[in-house]
Amino acid sequence: MSKCDSEVEFERSWNEMILEGNLQAHEWLGDLYKIRSKWSTAFNKEYFSMGILSTQRSECTNNVCHGISKPTSSITEYFLSLEKIITNWRRNEQDEDHKCSQSEIVSVIRSSSILKQVARFYSRKLYSFFEEEFLHGVGGMSIDFVSNDSSKFLVNYTENKDQSNPWVVHFDATDCTIQCTCKKFETMGLLCCHSMRVLRQLDIVKIPEKYLMLRWSAKARKSFYSGYAGLGKGTDCGSGFIFRNHISRFAYQISTRAQGNELAEQYMLGAMKDMAENIDLLVERKMINSNFICKSKSRAAPVSAFKDPQKRRPKRISNARLKGYWEKKKQKSKYNCALDALLLHFYCAFDALLLRIYCAFTAHLLRFYCAFTAPLLRLYCAFTALLKSLFFRRETINQIKKHLR
After folding, report:
1. Which of 20, 23, 97, 196 has the largest CB neighbor count within 10 A?
2. Closest Cα partner for 45 from 74, 15, 86, 2?
3. DSSP letters spanning 391-404
């Protein structure tokens, strides 16, 4: 039932299931059929759901909390572990944003103008989804029927045509509108493979701009939080959020600047009241745009009668501009660098001198050692030779005595 793309297909599949299982009197299936619009995907193709069939909150919670909590964990330990996971999520998102902004996507088919267009627009993840749909549509789909005015196409699989129902794709050449019965663009904001096959059949080399949703672009975050100016009307369903975000931040900045000043606060409140009245009139279409003159423009801010006194510096202080902390620190750093260079030069010279003294001392010490050990070595050799001769003579005398006996 989840693969049904239309209500007719759902009804046919449901009837086949009931007849095959002889389930006409099944009470639970009857009640389930009455609420089919709440659970069948065939009845929810008009809503933007991104392909999510259920919230799965319990499964997601168990998946996240299973590795960070134990039966003996305290609330503090659980909170710290959860904070680490959130930090990793944000770091991964920042890494993905950095990759999207600093690297270019390499298309599988480098000569395809459509893939080049979406590679410059989509994020890396969405581009992989689109590329899969594009390759599946161009390589795995075929067109069975084309109307005379090329406004209706029947798209089917290249293989197993008997086991599947063809998808109907409508195309309007006047405004480049394309619509498929699978309604993947309505549910996910991404053109399906059937539409890709039709665009390839019509030799359209670029996707219309209205089918490139801002929410899937690589600059979606920047567009949502950078302000409302520069965005066209009707660019995306999130344009209302962009407007509210920009107005909220602008109003917060103005209120922060006016806070603490009674005259500024009163002026801001009066201007906001006038603006609210004018907006109500515009919404009710009681005012013509060409004749619309905002009352807040004629409202002038009250000028205070008090003026600031003349700023004069005390005696013994120069009228030159006072240097800030960083300028003073920078000036000191120049002297410090020169002093460090001088100290380094003296250190290198002193180190070289010490090295020379050490080498000369070790050379003299080695010469003295050689001169002292040479006589000792000679004396040792003579003494050992004398001992050997005496021992040899003693042995010979003993042998002579034995022979005489």
Report:
1. 196
2. 2
3. HHHHHHHHHHHHHH
- pLDDT (tens digit, 9 = 90+) per residue, 177-223? 998 988 888 888 889 899 999 998 888 889 988 888 888 888 777 66
Is pLDDT larger for residue 335 or for residue 339?
339
Contact status, residue 127 vs residue 114, Cβ threshold 8 Å: no
Q: Model pTM?
A: 0.52
Lowest mean pLDDT among 30-39, 60-69, 137-146, 329-338: 329-338
Amino acid (1-letter code) at residue 27: E
Average pLDDT over residues 352-377: 88
Residue closest to 218 by CA, chosen among 123, 127, 79, 326: 123
* Per-residue exposure over 199-234, b if at least 16 CB sit within 10 Å of its own CB, e if not: bbbeebeebeeebbbbbbbbebeebbeeeeeebeee
Give the C-alpha separation, 340 to 336, whole Å.
6
Round to whole Å and give the CA distance between 113 and 118: 9
- In whole angstroms, what is the distance from residue 172 CA to residue 43 CA? 25
